[in-house]
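Sequence only, no structure available. Ideas?
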Amino acid sequence: LLNIYQPNGISKANIGKWHLHGPMPASNLNNPNIMGYDLFSGVFIGQLASYTNWTKVTNGVSANVTTYATTETINDAVNFTAASALQNKPFFLWLAVNAPHAPYHLPPAGLHSYTNLSGTQMDINMNPKSYFKASLEALDHELGRLFDSLEIHGQLDSTDIIFIGDNG
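Reply:
I predicted one. Tokens follow.
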């Protein structure tokens, strides 16, 4: 619809999870772009097996990524919105992060305040709520980076943010 009402006037990105259909056949990897997004960067599954070793698709091209998934997703959002600012172009961003979500995991240090979590599977099984909260805190930290970037580029006051959670 954005292309109909303002062709080439709005930068459009879907970053994070595209959970509308699977990645196979391989032609599905282009579906977000075919549906009108200038940029798709993310995954075609709702649940990552690993948050630090996963496959990301960028405009139809798959690549292995070892950056923490929440951080990588926010990095892509920051880069997209900053590029829109440089072009002095409004943007639409659908940002869908994977965490907090099973499998529970220990986010990288510095993204949460939990110091008593070992990250072992036994500890995760015994304390799932703490790991969920650590992932949520990591998400909060990373969203703060995105908001800071929007403010630096003069976009925060003119950006509508709708936050919806579906992972618990």
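The two ends are 31 Å apart (CA to CA).
Hope that gets you unstuck.
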